[in-house]
């Protein structure tokens, strides 16, 4: 296949990838989760004060924050030249679509077959979990995943005679480190890669050994600078990001092996298992590296040291790459047999199987995904317009970023748990406020956190309540109602020292 033809087909695949996403995100009123609104608030902070929210006056009533800010600054730079709404909707999806380009170059390098690489890129468009988690959200994964693949591709191509690959790798790794803590996973994969090569009696070139040493120190140093306060505050438990244990258990308990296979793609999953088995102890450096990624990601998922969405996305992409290797090997085998003439029908059968097991599930997941309720946004905007600016609004963990981003009011809790020493106590107290039938107990806790308004929305499902049990009390007045969403104003306060 000519390079120009392959480039044209790859461009068409990129366009297909983007417009498939475009169909689902463009006319959607709200985003899929609260994280998108948190990112919007970060970008707006950079636009207004030229700095991200390291000192957040609204989250947890006011707090210090630690995070990787590169993604927010990148979106801000785009917003200088383009309307913010366009940037927030289009840029993450354009970046996510570059994944298929990287899959093409990686598979082409491994298989030396442009057609197989293009087929793998086509499959990479429809990784169900990747589409679900990056289409109608503003997720750092839209940068972290392509950067992960780009650094992987550059590392495999590092040679003494190709100085440009070394320079580009160093620049990319630095960007990756600033954008996402997932760069630590990349370093772990490099270390396992060394071990696997030793087991296979293979050795790395001197330049690659030096590159790995540099990568380890570079990434660890950047992450230490970004998260040193969290490390000093939480110690080794920082790897769990101070997430309450019950959240971790509940989050992973909803996932089983069948659902994982469904999310990463059924066809790539089973063919990838065969390739891992076949090449695990064979002397193939590039394949060994991606086996390292799968191994590290799987171990991190087992021990719950990685976010489930990122872990499944990395597995899905690696499985797609392995599928390309399998298809190359199968073609080579058929060329040596009398079944060579059936290669075309093999391709058609795989396309049909892929249509049933990946494209349709991807469409179904996006069509039936849950987005933030438009009535919830409307109620939060009512709070912004009708309450004092220094008000504290109580909501669930999932509503915390919505309260600070949409209502622009102080919250009691959200899902940014780092540096919060009393997060478990807060969760217990919030549950008590929503479920207690003893008004005095609720008032004590409301006063303790300085709550001025109670939002009754997601709390109904989370705590299995219809309303506040003490709503008839003179200390709580219903000030807003929108469908099933209610906002109560706290009229009485128990004098008690406010929590820091």
Quick synopsis:
This protein has 500 residues and is mostly helical. It has 21 helices and seven strands.
Key structural traits:
single chain; 500 residues; mainly alpha; Rossmann fold; 2 domains; five-stranded mixed β-sheet; two-stranded antiparallel ribbon; 21 helices; 65% helix; 5% strand
Explain what the structure shows:
It is a single chain. The protein folds into two domains: 3-30 and 66-367, no CATH class; 374-490, Rossmann fold (3-Layer(aba) Sandwich), CATH 3.40.50. Helix 2 (34-49) packs across helix 3 and helix 8 (163-179) runs parallel beside helix 10 (206-234). 65% of the residues lie in helices and 5% in strands. The strands form two sheets. Strands 4-3-5-7-6 form a five-stranded mixed sheet, covered by helices on one side. The chain has a two-stranded antiparallel sheet with strand order 1-2. The chain has helices at residues 3-25, 34-49, 70-81, 84-111, 114-125, 128-134, 141-156, 163-179, 183-199, 206-234, 245-253, 257-264, 266-279, 285-302, 308-335, 343-367, 374-386, 400-407, 423-435, 439-448, 459-462, and strands at residues 55-56, 63-64, 392-394, 410-411, 453-456, 476-482, 485-490. The N and C termini lie far apart (65 Å). The longest helix is centred in the middle third of the chain and has 29 residues, at 206-234. The protein is mainly alpha-helical and 500 residues long. The protein has 21 helices and seven strands.
